[in-house]
Amino acid sequence: MTNLPWKPIGLAAGGIVFAAMLLFYNPVPENPKVGFMASIAALMAILWISEAIPLAATALIPVIALPLTGIIDAGTITKSYVNSIVFLFIGGFLIALSMERWNLHRRIALNIISAIGKRADLMVLGFMVASGFLSMWISNTATAVMMLPIGLAIISKMEDAFGKERTHGLSLAIMLGIAYGASIGGVSTLVGTPTNLAFVRIFQESFPEAPPIEFGKWILIGIPYSASLMLVVWFLLTRFLCRVDPSLTLDRAVIHKELTELGPLKREEKLVLFVFASTVFLWLFRKDLHIGAFNLPGWSNLWSGFANIDDGTIAIAMALILFVLPAQNDSGAHRILENDAFKKLPWAIILLFGGGFALASGFGASGLSQHIGQGFQAIGEVPTLVLIIIICLSVTFLTELTSNVATLSMLLPILATWAVSVQVHPLLFAIPATISSSMAFMMPVATPPNAVVFGSQRIRIAEMARTGLLLNLIAVVFTVIATYLLLPAFIESPMGDFPDWAK
After folding, report:
1. Taking a C-beta distance cutoff of 8 angstroms, is the pair 251, 157 a contact?
2. Which end of the chain has fewer CB atoms within 10 angstroms, the N or the C?
3. CA dihedral angle for residue 254, residue 260, residue 265, residue 269, rounded to 10 degrees
4. Residue 451 and residue 170 in contact, taking contact as beta carbons nearer than 8 Å
5. Is 212 within 8 Å of 163 (Cβ atoms)?
6. Cα separation of 152 and 172, whole Å?
7. Which residues are bridge partners to 296 per DSSP?
8. Are 439 and 73 in contact (CB under 8 A)?
9. For 370, what's the count of Cα atoms within 13 Å in the CB-facing half-sphere?
C-alpha cells in the first residue's frame, strides 16, 4: 500500500471526478453555476489532499476556472490573492525575518529557558514556553528549527551526566515540547499561524457585513487558550506520557555558553526589538479594547485618517522601517533588512491563502453556499455542542494527514453556510475549526514542527502517535470549553443570538 503512486492516482482521480461532475452533476437546473462550483471545489479538494501537484499550484485553479464558468470575472477573482490579510502576513513575516537575521529570537529563547528553572520538568516547560512565545510572532517551522539544536545540546549534556536510560523520558518530553509548544503558541495571535489569517479573510468573504476580526480582539481567545492548554500538555508530558524524572537537574553551563557566544545585546537587536514591540503595541491598541466593564480607547480615535488603517497597514509600515534602519556590523549588511528578505518570503503559503479566499468567494457568488445550507437544514435539531465537538474532532484528525491551511480553506465556507442554515452564530463553528486545524499532534507530517523534531531521530513514530492521540483529544476538549467561556467576550453578545450581519 505504501508504495502506491498516490500523486498520479490523485491527479487522475481529480480529473475524472471533475469531468464527471461537470457533465452530470447539476443540482440546481436553473443555476448551473452551482454544479460548476461544486466540480471546481471537488477537484481542488482531491488535489490538495493527495498533493498531486504543489498546493500553491492547486490554489491558482480559481483564477482560470471561475472566470471560464462565469462564476466570477477575472478582475474580481484575482483580488482575492492580494488583500489586507495577505499584507498582514507579509509584514509580519518580514519582521520575523529581522528577528531571525540578528539572532534576537535565539537570545529570547535562551533567556526564557534559563529563567524558568533547572529542574528537569521545569526545563521542559522552559522549552515549551520559549517555543510558544516565539511562534506567536515567527513561523512555527523557524521556531522548531531554531529550538532543536538547543534542545539536543541540553539532552546530550544530561545523557552524559545521568545516562541515556534515565534521561529517555526527558529527551522525549523536550523534543515533543518544542513541537507542541510551537503549534500551541501559534494560536495565540493572528500572525502566529497561517490558518488564523486564512480564517479572518474567508470569514470576511463569507460575511462582508460582519465586524472585522482584529489582532487585539483575537488574543482575548488566543492567549488564555494557548497558556492553559500548554500548562496541561506540559503536566501530562512530564508526569504521565514521558515520565520525566524530576530529580534530574540541568547544568546551566550549556545555556550560559550559548548566551556568551551571542555576546551583549547588539545595536541591531535593540532596533529590531523596538520595532517588534512597537508593532505589537500598535496592533493591540488600534481599536477600543472592551474587557468586561472596562473600555480602553484605541489610538485610531485620535485622528480621522487613522480610521482607514488596519492591521495589515501597520505590519507593512513597520516592516518598511526595517529596510531603512542602518546596520553597523562586520557582516557587510547596511540595513536591518535587505533585498534578500523578499526571496525568503513563503510565496507558496501566500498563494495558498489566495486560493482559499477565492474558493470562499466562489461558494457565495455561485449559489453553492445557499444550496449546501438547504441540505444542512435537515440536521438543525442536533444540539450546537454536539456539532462543535464533531467539527473539532473532524478538523483535528483530518489535518493529521493534510495541509491545515488547505483543509481550513475548504471547510470554512461550508461551515459558514451550515451555521446560517441552523441559525447558529457563525463564529461558534468557524473559531473552533480554526483552532483545531493547529492541534494535530500525532503524525510527523501533520505540522512542520512535528516533522522537524521527528527528524532528530530522538522520537519513534509510535511514541509520537501514542502521545499525540491523547493530546489531540485533550485539545478538542479545551477548544470546546474555550468556545463557551471565551467567545462571548470576543463577539460581545450572547452566543445564542443569531447576528443580523449573518442573515
Report:
1. yes
2. N
3. -60
4. no
5. no
6. 11
7. 289
8. no
9. 10
- β pairing state of 289-291 and 294-296: antiparallel
**Among 85, 178, 176, 81, residue whose Cα is nearest residue 130:** 178
- State the pLDDT at residue 380: 59
User: What is the reported pTM?
Assistant: 0.84
Instruction: Give the pLDDT of residue 244.
Output: 92
Query: H-helix or E-strand containing 289?
Result: strand 289-291
Q: Which of 431, 322, 426, 330 is nearest to 373 (CA)?
A: 426
Cell numbers 520538568 correspond to 121
Write phi, then psi, for 289 (nearest 5 degrees).
-105, 120
Distance CA 392, CA 397 (A): 9
Euclidean distance between CA atoms 305 and 137, whole angstroms: 28
Q: Is 192 helix (H, G, I), strand (E, B) or coil?
A: coil
Q: With contact defined as beta carbons under 8 Å apart, do 395 and 431 qualify?
A: no
Note whether 202 and 210 are within 8 A (CB): no
Distant-in-sequence, close-in-space partners of 109: CB < 8 Å, separation ≥ 6:
130, 131, 134, 146, 147, 150
Which 8-state DSSP code applies to residue 294?
E
Cα–Cα distance measured from residue 499 to residue 208, given in angstroms and rounded to the nearest whole number: 13
Q: Which amino acid is at 81?
A: Y
Q: Residue 292 has which C-alpha cell? A: 468586561
Tell me the C-alpha distance between 134 and 130, whole Å. 6
| Cell numbers representing residue 18 in the block | 471533475
| Weakly modelled stretches of the chain, pLDDT under 70 | 1-4, 251, 290-294, 329-333, 376-380, 492-496
Query: What does the buried/exposed string (b/e) look like for 67-88 if buried means 16 or more CB atoms within 10 Å of the residue's CB?
Result: bebebbeeeebbebbebbbbbb
DSSP 149-186: HHHHHHHHHHHHHH-HHHHHHHHHHHHHHHHHHHHHHH
Give the residues across from 294 on adjacent strands: 291
pLDDT digits (tens, 9 = 90+) for 387-434: 999 999 999 998 887 788 888 888 899 999 889 888 889 999 999 999
Q: How many angstroms separate the CA atoms of 305 and 53, rounded?
A: 45
d(CA 25, CA 497): 36
201: nearest Cα among 358, 2, 32, 362: 358
Element (H, E) at 296: strand 294-296
The answer to whether 265 and 107 are in contact (CB under 8 A) is: yes
Which positions ≥6 away from 272 have C-beta within 8 Å?
95, 98, 99, 102, 104, 322, 336
The values of phi and psi at residue 291, to 5°, are -125, 100
Question: What pLDDT, on the 0 to 100 scale, is given for residue 247?
Answer: 86
